[in-house]
Write a structure and sequence with these properties.
single chain, about 190 residues, alpha+beta, Protein Transport Mog1p, Chain A, about 25% helix
């Protein structure tokens, strides 16, 4: 009987996946097996120093911290960050990146549809009308890449939806920023692989 108990206990502990657990620090328990994506929070999407070096960008000195929000009936936003960067090789070209983690994927899709169409439809004194589409769905099934210009100032907007995340990348400045924005989108997509 003791031998049978040892065999059963040994088999049970060997077949369970390992988990990362830290109840003392209030972290989420995440299985280390059967995960489909390394991204668990918006903080994992924030561009690292290595990402910025690869992209040819620097921080504009502002903090890019992720704000956490309670998920309840009144708010579908779980996390949000806004980051301000500069493209080093282009004159006066700033990049703003907004990262939002929402409570479910359908809300992320709805936010993308509202945000991208609302901004494209706006024409006011501080923002020119969009001149054209660069691409749709090049960064997954839910992405839109647009541009507009006002005299010599070019604006690029790239929206990406991936699961619970809505990523909005905006630049203001040099016309040459288009390829930088495209590369930023590729870096974000690589964080989901």
């Amino acid at each position: 009987m003791i031998a049978l108990t040892i065999v059963l206990v040994g088999c049970q502990s060997a077949s369970q996946p390992s988990i990362t657990s830290s109840t003392d620090t209030n972290q989420t328990i995440i299985p280390t097996t059967n995960t489909t994506s390394p991204v668990f929070g918006a903080q994992n999407l924030v561009l690292t120093a290595q990402d910025l070096a690869q992209l040819g960008m620097t921080s504009n000195g502002t903090d890019c911290s992720v704000q956490n929000y309670p998920n309840n009936d009144y708010s579908s936003l779980a996390q949000y960050a806004i980051c301000d960067y500069n493209i080093t090789s282009l004159n006066n070209t700033d990049v703003i990146i907004e990262l939002s983690k929402l409570s479910n994927a359908s809300i992320a899709i709805g936010a993308y549809q509202y945000d991208s169409s609302h901004l494209r439809g706006y024409q006011g004194p501080n923002l020119p009308a969009f001149n054209g589409t660069i691409s749709n769905n090049d960064y997954g099934d839910m992405s839109a890449f647009y541009y507009s210009n006002e005299s010599t100032t070019f604006y690029y907007h790239l929206w990406i939806v991936k699961g619970l995340y809505l990523i909005h990348i905006t630049s203001k400045g040099d016309k040459g920023a288009q390829s930088y924005i495209a590369n930023i989108g590729k870096v974000f997509m690589s964080k989901f692989n």
